[in-house]
Amino acid sequence: MAEELQAARDRVVQVLDGARFLHTWAFEYTPASSQDLDWSYLDKVRRAAFVFWLVGTSTTEPVEREIAEAISAQRRLIIMLLPASTRDERTTRLIEQARSHAKYREPADLDQLAVEIDLAVSDEINRALQDLPGMGRIARLDERGRASRARCVERWQAAGVELAQALDLANDMSVGVAPALALPSDDRPLVILRGEVGIGKSLAAERYHQAAIAAQLSDTTQAVPVYVRARDATAGLADTVVEAAEGLGDPRQQGAAVILDGADEPGVGAAADLLRQARELARTWPSTHILMTSRPVSPLTGTQEAFDLPRLTAEAARDLVGAAAGFEITLGQQAGWSENLREAIELPLFAVLLGTSLRRSGGQMPTSRAELLRSLVEAGVGRVKSDARPLLRRLAVLSLRRSGGPVPEAEVTAPHELVDLEETRLVVARDRTVTFPLIVIAQWFAAESLIGGEPTVSELVNDPGNLEDWRYPLAIVAGTYAHDHVTALIGPLAEAHPGFASQIIEEGLAKWSNAEDVLPPDGNECGRRVRETTEHWIAGLGDLASRIAPVGADGSLLPTGAHVSGHWLTTGWYAGTEQHPAVTRLPHGLHGFLATNDPKAHEWIAVRGARPGPQAAWAWRWSFEQLRDALGAMPGVACG
What's the pTM? Predict the structure, then answer.
């Protein structure tokens, strides 16, 4: 073990010596000094930017004192647990004491140790340099470049990519670059890069930011590179950019290359205001280019600055899946995947998720984006011996209430539980805060929390100003949970905010399918579900219900008829004079290919047939589409 420990020390020194702005000091190489021995050793700990502890099978008393001093002096402590079958009592005790004050990793070998050290150095330099006054321009640019690279690595690791590969991807500047038409230029100084979750907006923005840093490193007259999260700029974009550019130049004089990431996150109203400020900035400051990223939201839809980031081609998606899986994916294999899966991997995030899932499972195939995320989440939770799910759900709710931003550690977990949270690799802890690098993972756990009753549906209904924060978690619920669970949440929303609820249903049932078609329940159950969901929509429609909904003269819902044949469901509404139960069997012939000869067939209205599909909450879309079609059939009304 002594030889391995020495080799590990040498590798750490080698990596640290290659880092700019660092002077490496190893305790075993302490030079002669007139100082007291204790002071000469521990003074280095007290003054260190950060301290590495390489943990073997045993720990000497001096090392124990050094680690205690690092904790006492609040130094940044990084623990690397070297492979060992056993560790002595002192070592085990010291690890437990240090867990709440440090981050630690368990590299499998020396090569993995070098990778872990490299990543840790990047992260810690970012933090250490922030504390140093009077940093030079080069140091500040280096800090920003390292921070951007670290954000890329964190996102790939959160998607299940191994650390070494994540570092390779981060260092490959060709990965994730947006088309030239999608980037700002002198002719088009403001661009809004739009797309759904997972299409690669943030990575494209990071690449643009890294290119701007490289330009300023080579030419001080180039625009100042600035990265801003939209949620941090709501008090004023210009002031935020000036503050972020400190030490790099005056953006009001030499211009700025600004990234405004997540413009939709602070809410619809804030997005519209940020767009107004960005337009003003791009027109006022010289040589200023601004790249905003956003999911599709109304204030940023249809604007002349908007550019929709294209999906991957089938070939590009196949190559990305193979790169993440570690083996080639053939055209024949891709052709055999489900339609849902082939559609999902057109988004880079889900292509990476499929590759990492195939690598973990040895070839077992998920069938949809929902299963891809579930596989990632289960792998992350499975890395921890304790149950990390409650903490992850809590973090997700608190983060979404901050527009997806970081949450103070103390609001999420006790210090001794933070290590478990980090070990899932789904979250990142930094500067006493915790966050999800991938917002879609936060949305997944927020959906779990919604099903568990936090926040309650009444809280959602009574807080329309913050409903937008819950759009995607609600869509995940609609697409992946049982009918009764979905109805408990969407029902009250449909009654209070029918427009918003309809968007949730369209989003959730279009994109979060769990599998290929499955047989629907029997006719009575299908009729019950269609009737139940229609009643919620009617309650939200108010006076409009009497014009487009299947209701009688007294405003009550007409009897519902349903028939199931294999995958095919037919429903209708009885408008005749006979008495029928609320849910009944649709007469024979109305659900066949030939028109019925029954003279009372005309008493059944709004007869509709289709395959309900695989999702348990299909009835919500069924009833919504029927009402939407009725509205579109009204004279002078067009529905999209």
Answer: 0.77
